[in-house]
Amino acid sequence: GQNIDQPTEMTATEGAIVQINCTYQTSGFNGLFWYQQHAGEAPTFLSYNVLDGLEEKGRFSSFLSRSKGYSYLLLKELQMKDSASYLCAVLDSNYQLIWGAGTKLIIKP
Amino acid sequence: GAVVSQHPSWVICKSGTSVKIECRSLDFQATTMFWYRQFPKQSLMLMATSNEGSKATYEQGVEKDKFLINHASLTLSTLTVTSAHPEDSSFYICSARAGAGEVETQYFGPGTRLLVL
Fold first, then answer.
1. How far is A89 from A36, CA to CA, in rounded Å?
2. Does the pLDDT value for residue B72 go beyond 90?
3. Hey, are the CB atoms on B102 and A95 less than 8 Å from each other?
4. A89 in Cβ contact with A33 (< 8 Å)
5. CA nearest to B95, candidates B82, B111, B83, B80
6. Contact A42/B109, CB-based, under 8 Å?
7. What's the rounded Cα separation, in Å, for the pair B78 and B72?
8. CA B114, CA B117: separation in Å to the nearest integer?
9. Helix-strand-coil percent breakdown of chain A, rounded to 5?
10. Strand, coil or helix: what is B89?
11. Is the minimum CB–CB distance between A38 and chain B shorter than 8 Å?
């Protein structure tokens, strides 16, 4: 079966750095997405990785290792507004998005 | 990024009535739109994939006669919840894929909260 694992919840301190991991087992791979979802709102796109390596976009970076079936989202200089759920999603061989359950990130002052 | 709108943002209705939700891509043409449902503190659940001009593809366990999807144009898809019941109360979110490539990013609408009394 297809499976995406990410931690249920993480806590970090304002101004610090946090890394949210995502491991996947899917039938084929056509890229991995990270989305941010604030409580009560729809997800917003953060990043897309299809090749191995690190993609940096401001305070957020996303890393992919296809051989390990692994990705992480790195958030630097955490701000209170970064408190949200972070969703990992993989595009499989049928170009279907397989979603993780999301990681709830709690930022403390 | 691409903008997707949804209307209405909130619906409260009586049990047995039908509710229509619209999803529009405002600044791009979306050949494919997706409908999701999300219950509190749960992950997104894909309900159906909608391609312009053809019948929607429903996920297993989703009743196509209850959740009617129409994708009549490249910028509009509608979801109609027929004979809604309290268990249909949920957060319904649409997304649209920009461009013709299958790996294009999905952009989400703001969602519609449905409460069935």
1. 11
2. no
3. yes
4. yes
5. B111
6. yes
7. 8
8. 10
9. 5, 55, 40
10. coil
11. no
